[in-house]
Design brief:
Order of helices and strands: HHHHEEHEEEEH
Structural class: alpha+beta
Strand content: 5-15%
Helix content: 25-40%
Number of strands: 6
Number of domains: 1
Strand order of the largest sheet: 1-2
Shape: elongated
Radius of gyration: 23 Å
Largest sheet: 2 strands, antiparallel
Length: about 150
């Protein structure tokens, strides 16, 4: 319970308050900037062969046999990272169907037939290690996002 209250006329700052409301009604520009921050972190993951938290990816069988970079054979996955921006949110990800198994890891089993064949090797299943390329809550660059939000509000 308030024992005393002072009511102020907001007229001297009304214009600034209206600008702030207008700016916050459509945050598309700042959401686009946040999406770029996340895409830059993802690009760095592909360039360094490490997750956004710095953990090195386990080399793929192709890299061990032929050389090159893990998750960068044709470059399709790396080049597929996009952002969807709206007035109050941004989504960064890939539409490449195998992106999820590389990000999260898991077991691949044959959908048709009895086994899988990879480079002349036949197996019932293949366990893919997780090789995160998209940052999560613990690895996203919060400091840069916070700085971007502060700049936007000025």
């Amino acid at each position: 319970m308030i024992g005393i209250a002072i009511h102020l006329d907001a007229a001297p700052v009304q214009h600034l308050l209206e600008q702030l409301v207008d700016k916050l009604a459509d945050m598309t520009p700042v959401m686009a900037s946040i999406g770029e921050i996340i895409i830059e972190q993802t690009d760095t993951a592909f360039e360094t062969g490490a997750s956004p938290n710095g953990a090195r990816w386990e080399p793929s069988g192709r890299v061990l046999a032929e050389g090159g970079q893990t998750l960068v054979d044709t470059g399709r996955l790396k080049n597929s990272i996009t952002r969807l921006v709206s007035t109050d949110a941004v989504t960064v990800g890939t539409g490449v169907i195998y992106g999820a198994i590389h990000q999260l890891g898991g077991v691949i089993r044959a959908k048709q037939g009895k086994a899988l064949a990879f480079g002349g090797v036949v197996r019932q299943s293949v366990t893919m290690p997780s090789r995160p390329f998209l940052p999560d809550e613990s690895s996203v660059d919060w400091a840069e996002i916070i700085a971007t939000l502060k700049d936007y509000l000025q």
